[in-house]
């Protein structure tokens, strides 16, 4: 169905697009996850590794996604369809490899995995690169399913802060409370439902009246709230101990694992690897500057992740709590911390509203990917697409919600999975999270860079980026860094190292190799 081009909606301007894309990027990953993984992995030293991953892999891949989306004006499936060659040797090789490993596994009597890989191999041989787009759309379902459950908890905690239920005097009590809360199906499902409903209501209105309008309201609010929290946190007695814990570099903690954690976090935090940025880019016109947009989105995302730690750690230390609480930090330690400072309920309320806003602007981007697929490729009206996709994600997410910590309520799925695949994760929630974050996103990122670098071609991608950013291809990087932007040599016609050539090298070699290593490591094939 390719008749929709003429009526396809577009962002009303660069600001709306940047705020929406930054809204997608800034999410639970920044405020809930980034601070504690920094705390656990060597503070400032980890931040340096993370910044490298962002600069060398994150930003170049984001530019690929924007370019692919804008060039094709399509959702991820449509984008790969439009640009895929009739037959691709690389795709056939990958398909053949997967098929052979499937046969190999059958020989070892791993029936489930064997059959799965054989089926997948055949699909790859038949459909080639389009499957990368399909994987992106599927990832939209699986990521939003568990994301919405956690987002629902933040919604529940906003309510608890208002109604004064967070007055814990010790972390143990907060922990028990949290445990009961997430295990209670009525609460977990109710909050998950409400969050999905909010996402559906926004995406239902479309690009400008829905996503863009709400991003323009929510993102400035998010920045104001986080600044207020930082000021409160940094002015508590002893706050500096927390800052020191958060940022003092400890290089002894940096090892392969922390580098891989940084890379995975960079992908998740920048919303890369499943076509969310591609979809947002597809609503752009040719005048938009993809290079400066990428810098703004990456910059905002990184800044907010970094300063989220400044809102959290000083408060935790000022009240003498232990920071290594990991994932439980925000739902267990923080409410207890807030309870000890004046107007605690108010600060707790602000904090959970902050989390909720961050999650909402990310949730809508996840929902938009699958919605755009049904609108572009299946010709559905947007409203029907949003409601059907939202409903399906609600159901998948409900399974996550009722089985966050074990398989108790989903024994039948568990038995099935064990029979087919041998091993499974601790819960349905973990299985879905693992599948999305450790499989779909890295593989998606790998294939997006390989596709841009070798199939579509850096040359054509660069042509796309040049629209709206005319000198991206010709800036002499060395003289730019040296501060010689106004020197005549800067505009000389022969340059070896330009921004564009560096980008091409990153996309063709560095990022696929790095992502591949990270992927093989997480699935346990390396070390
Ligand atoms: N980036 C968001 C966060 O940091 C989550 C998110 C939104 C996302 N859209 C995505 C992650 C697409 C991966 C892919 O919380």
How many individual helices?
A: 21
- Ligands bound to this protein structure: tryptophan
Shape: globular
Query: Which structural category do the helix and sheet elements fall into?
Result: mainly alpha
Strand content: under 5%
* Total of domains: 2
Helix-strand pattern? HHHHHHHHHHHHHHHHHHHHH
Report the end-to-end length measured between terminal Cα atoms.
47 Å
- Assembly of the depicted chains: single chain
Q: What is the total tally of β strands?
A: 0
Low-confidence stretches are 1-5
* CATH architecture heading of the largest domain: Up-down Bundle
CATH fold type of the largest domain:
Sodium/glucose cotransporter
**Share of helical residues:** over 70%
* Arithmetic mean of pLDDT: 92
Radius of gyration: 23 Å
Give a verbal description of the structure:
- The protein has 21 helices and no strands.
- It has 527 residues and is an all-alpha fold.
- It starts with 13 loop residues before the first helix and ends in a 5-residue tail after the last helix.
- Helix 2 runs antiparallel to helix 12 and helix 5 runs antiparallel to helix 6.
- The structure holds tryptophan (TRP).
- The site of tryptophan has 17 residues, from helix 1, helix 2, helix 12 and helix 16.
